[in-house]
Amino acid sequence: MSTTNGAQAPPKDKLIFAPGSNPDDAHTAHQAAQFSLSRLRRSDLSDNPFTQFHTWFTHPQLKGFVPETVTLSTASLPSGRISSRTVYLKELDDKGFVIYSNFGTSRKAADITSNPHAALTFWWKPLERQVRVEGRTERLSPAESQVYFSTRARGSRIGAWASQQSSVLVPEPENDDDGRLGLENRVKEIEKRFEGQDEIPVPPFWGGLRIIPESVEFWQGRESRLHDRFVYTRLESDAGWKIERLSP
């Protein structure tokens, strides 16, 4: 269906339909924004994906953008059901990408127990860039996790002990509660437990997870959705990386 000026009207049975970059312009209201900031060539890339990632991650235009925000995806076996959540990248070393979380009761913990593979997706809108990481996971040792844990604000360390992540919080109707009260009481218990103690040990169920990449894709947005994509694939016996351009 067209409007009187020739533009396409959205179907009436859609709550959201092709939101565009300029909703006030009837001719482009349903056209997605074009990517035109940059391009990516093989000659621009480092031979090592970790070096290349660091170059992109520290780009001056990302200052203040929080580039460490990343989507972590895991999948449970045998069902194959996928779950995703936003986490923070906290470390990058010559082995892989490290995030920290609860690995006792969380959904990601259950997924990783049955399937040690995971994926990360970074989206950096100011640069129209995306990085996708796929690989296997390994838990960091308690000693390694303690190094980062000790840098967290005290409240966050108490919270890590108090939260049984993803478990159901049962309401207490007599207190006009929706379940939050049980968590707050648990926090008070942990605060009392560590009262006057500056050094709080990392919980045994909490710590670092390293994603050791088998592939890393660097994506640069281009006009007409003809994006530049290069994927690094780990060679056998850790003999380096193969780099290939992918069709958009």
UniProtKB/TrEMBL annotation:
Q: Which pathway features in its UniProt record?
A: Cofactor metabolism; pyridoxal 5'-phosphate salvage; pyridoxal 5'-phosphate from pyridoxamine 5'-phosphate: step 1/1; Cofactor metabolism; pyridoxal 5'-phosphate salvage; pyridoxal 5'-phosphate from pyridoxine 5'-phosphate: step 1/1
Location of region: Disordered: 1-29
Extract the InterPro entries matched here. Pyridox_Oxase (IPR000659), Pyridox_Oxase_CS (IPR019740), Pyridox_Oxase_N (IPR011576), Pyridoxamine_oxidase_dimer_C (IPR019576), Split_barrel_FMN-bd (IPR012349)
Tell me the cofactors it needs.
Answer: FMN
Residues covered by the Pyridoxine 5'-phosphate oxidase dimerisation C-terminal domain: 206-248
| UniProt-listed Enzyme Commission number(s) | 1.4.3.5
What top-level branch of life does the organism fall under?
A: Eukaryota
- UniProt entry keywords in alphabetical sequence: Flavoprotein, FMN, Oxidoreductase
The GO terms describing molecular function are: pyridoxamine phosphate oxidase activity
Q: Which residues form the Pyridoxamine 5'-phosphate oxidase N-terminal domain?
A: 67-169
Protein name, per record: pyridoxal 5'-phosphate synthase
